[in-house]
Amino acid sequence: MFNNKIFFYLLYKKNKLISLFIFLTFNVFALTACVNKNTYRLDEERFFVLTTFTILADLARNVAGDRLLVESITKPGAEIHSYQFTPSDIVKTKGAKLIIENGLGLEAWSSKFLMSSGDIPNVKLTEGIKPLLIEGDSYSGKPNPHAWMSPKKAMHYVDKIVEAFIKIDPDGALEYSSNASTYKAKLQSLDKELRDSLSSIPKERRFLVTCEGAFSYLARDYGMKEAYLWPVNAESQVTPRRMVNLIKTIKENEIPTIFCESTVSSEAQMEVAKSSGAVFGGTFYVDSLSDLNGPAPTYIDLLRHNVRLITEGLSVSAVKK
Ligand SMILES: [Zn+2]
Q1: Mean local confidence (pLDDT), 292-312
Q2: pLDDT at residue 321 above 60?
Q3: Which residue segment(s) compose the domain that 262 sits in?
Q4: In the predicted model, is pLDDT for residue 317 greater than 80?
């Protein structure tokens, strides 16, 4: 609008040549701004890589260092299982050298997305992981896709990222491998830290109750039992049967505190807490990081935040009702 006003003003002044020049300059400027807004690519120097969600972007950035530009397609707080991608998401893939996804059926939208975005190579980071299978309920027997919730499995993700980066940028091999070993050392000490925290919870209270069954890998690695309202967020229907079963489990096991995740509504879990006598212990970050000012801006922060809530919540005795 602004450039058009100037154009007509100058036309009125009968300075046609200058007005035409200004008009064209403004339009080229506006068009460039528009292109920049519609692409993740911020500079021409570095290869550009996309991930399906924020946690994978954080892992990939730790391997990439400054050598690659890494962006997530879904934003912090987004529901990632049944994400509805938009035409502008497809536009933003232009120029990407690689799309990184989790696999194991996590991203129900990814095959359509990959098809729509053309011939961009992709890698599934769970390739080679023996998945835990979902037990019971309508998803029984299907792989649980939340392998990143165990730092040990996250190390496998990091190795896959290194392989994929070297394929698109062989000259960066040394840099990627060295960044990966530094980051894996951090994951190794995180694993010990989480183990120490969780082992402070009395054995009989190591029972994790969440909305989504996303903690199976973490629960297995740190010796916890788990129960949940629904197996995966792709099918987060709260049925009376699911609620009644969960309330029964909480009462029978005298579980003091229960939780829910940031990307779904915690309303039903609040109801479960009320009916079972458990306390609602707070919001986990599982499928998405928080924004920079939140409690889980990185993968390591995310696990620390969750484990702190678990340790605080389960270290108290249940209030008997
Ligand atoms: Zn999930």
Answers
A1: 97
A2: no
A3: 196-314
A4: no
Q: At what angle do helices 151-168 and 173-198 cross, to 10 degrees?
A: 170
Q: Ligand 1 mean position to 144 CA, how many Å?
A: 9
CB-proximal residues (5 Å) to ion ligand 1? 214, 233, 287
Residue 119 lies in a domain: no
Q: Is residue 289 part of a domain?
A: yes
Residue 109 reports pLDDT greater than 80 = yes
For residues 233 and 287, what is the distance between their CA atoms, to the nearest angstrom? 9
Distance 46 CA to ligand 1 centre (A): 31
Q: Are strands 122-124 and 279-284 parallel, antiparallel or unpaired?
A: unpaired
Q: By the 8 A CB rule, do 128 and 156 touch? A: yes
Q: Name the nearest CA neighbour of 286 among 156, 113, 186, 147.
A: 147
User: 233 CA distance to ligand 1 centroid (A)?
Assistant: 5
Other Cβ atoms less than 10 A from the Cβ of 310: the count is: 27
Cα 247 to ligand 1 centre (Å): 22
Instruction: Residue count of the chain, please give it.
Output: 321
Question: Position of tokens 């696990």?
Answer: 303
Mean pLDDT of 240-264: 94
pLDDT number for residue 318:
67
Q: What's the pLDDT score for residue 18?
A: 43
pLDDT at 28: 41
Q: Mean pLDDT across the stretch 144-153?
A: 96
Could you give the number of structural domains in the chain?
Answer: 2
Q: How far apart are CA 22 and CA 5, in angstroms?
A: 11
* Domain contains 295: yes
Structure-block tokens of residue 28: 């080229």
Q: How far is CA 227 from CA 235, 269, 281, in A?
A: 16, 12, 15
Report if residue 236 sits inside a domain.
Answer: yes
Confidence of residue 249 (pLDDT cuts 50, 70, 90): very high
Q: Is 208 helix (H, G, I), strand (E, B) or coil?
A: strand
